[in-house]
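Our consortium's second objective concerns turning raw sequence data into structural hypotheses that experimental partners can test. To show how far this objective has progressed, the report includes one record in full. It was chosen at random from the queue rather than selected for favorable results. The single chain below, 254 residues long, was entered without modification.
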Amino acid sequence: MTERIWDRYLTARDKAVFAAGGFGTHGGFPKRPALVIVDVSYGFAGDRPEPILDSIKRWSNSCGEESWAAIAVIKALAERFRERRLPVIYSTGQVRPDGWDIASWAWKNTRTGESVPRPTQALDPNTIVADIAPQPQDLVIFKQKPSVFFGTPLASYLQLLGADGVVVTGTTTSGCVRATVLDAFSMNFRVTVAEDGCFDRSQASHAINLCDMHAKYADVISSQEVLDHVQRLPENLFPNLPRGHVPAPLRAVG
């Protein structure tokens, strides 16, 4: 059996319990999937690949150079989804200039205030990394809490599109990715997580949360498996995708 990223963190007892309890079976890839790219912004990736302890000096939420390995994977996934005319949906944070609506984020981190855009910053921390910038036909969700579903129109967008599931990528694996996966699962969407398309500032949290999601809420598979699934899907699954341009005004008839 192929070793998974989380295996080195599990005891023999843990592995036996998962096996005996029937956890971790494959739930099945969505028939009409949307790709969800969670919070891949400069605030979480930094502005270049560099060791995490260097990056967080300037970007307090940075996940370091591992972010950029995942960004390359996400780019390939987004390009394939667009080629097959499948939805690509991004999320990023949104904060008032005065930071008032940071709210509970400030309770557990002494550097949270640095997330508020400042005039001295060359890049807004909430700007999605240019390497995978949204295209005109893509959807962008602005959020303030971990889950991309919480207080946003994501569920209604998926319903409008007719999607039956999501492929989740992005950051952090233990935070916003996991919260989004749990909400999607709770709404009875089929959920796939691209293992190598997610990243976190903590290696242990990354691995263990992938383990927990795969055990109960999602199929955690490689990006290559996702690409293979997508390539086999029928054509024109989403005839009502956003056009990506502003149509000419309709002429009134009457």
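The partners drew two points from this record. The chain has one domain: 27-232. The helical segments are 12-21, 42-45, 52-58, 65-83, 154-161, 173-186, 203-216, 223-232. Both points have been shared with the crystallography group to help prioritize constructs.
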